[in-house]
Amino acid sequence: MNQTLVKEFILMGFPVGHDMRIFLFGLFSLLYAITLMGNGVIFGLTCLDSRLRTPMYFFLSHLAIVDISYACNTVPQMLANLLDPVRPISYAGCITQTFLFLTFAHTECLLLVVMSYDRYVAICHPLRYSAIMSWRVCITLALTSWVLGYLLALVHLFLLLPLPFCGSQKINHFFCEIIAVLKLACADTHINEILVLAGAASVLVGPLSSIVISYIRIICAILHMQSREGRQKAFSTCSSHLCVVGLFYGTAIIMYIGPKHGDSKGQEKYLLLFHSLFNPMLNPLIYSLRNNEVKGALKRLLGKERSS
Question: Which residue, among 26, 28, 25, 73, has the nearest Cα to 281 in the 3D structure?
């Protein structure tokens, strides 16, 4: 029997009434603006303030770029669908959104590992820090994170593109999340699903294990510090990074590796909302509120603008 291939999809989004959709549109628009502004400030400060031109803030600026990209990839489409629930997204647009989401997710995983390694070297090997974390090494680590994130997402893309979509065109999500898209394919997707699980396990469990090992060594080194001020400064920068790691890896592991039970699809939808909107918004707040250097850079920048 001939079947017409699907050329566009409908994102189901959130099953709420008209008034609630308007409220969510206003709320998510505000959070989206805060996300762009917060991460933009972090990125701008690391570029403009010479005191923040260190490996730690170099990696933080890349994290800000990833968070901005994360939000820009999913939130505008979600906002459009809140105003017009039956507004379609093209097949090409949907596949592109899936690919970009995977790219940014993988890249952030790897960047968080690199940032933990940077803190490990800074605290456990302070005298050799400048030699180990040279600018050449920092650029190589950041570039490797982006390239590996792109290549890992490319594997999923190559397996997704040949699949035919000829049945329902309604995706039970607020963006083209890969598992939700695979459920609409008119072909066997077991290989794709196994690869998603295996990829999530390798990208999440492996890096998280290395982060945990790094921080066990970091905590031991901090406890042996003689200076109370040094311990406080080390705990301040490390606790900010641990908060970001906990938020990112915690939600990702629950979504892709944790056991499924009950209304898992509804739970995953809200977890991914937290992952793609609230996480990028909270990251700059965590780093700026708990970091005196970032707050000092912002004060210096505002002071220069006022004096000029």
Answer: 28
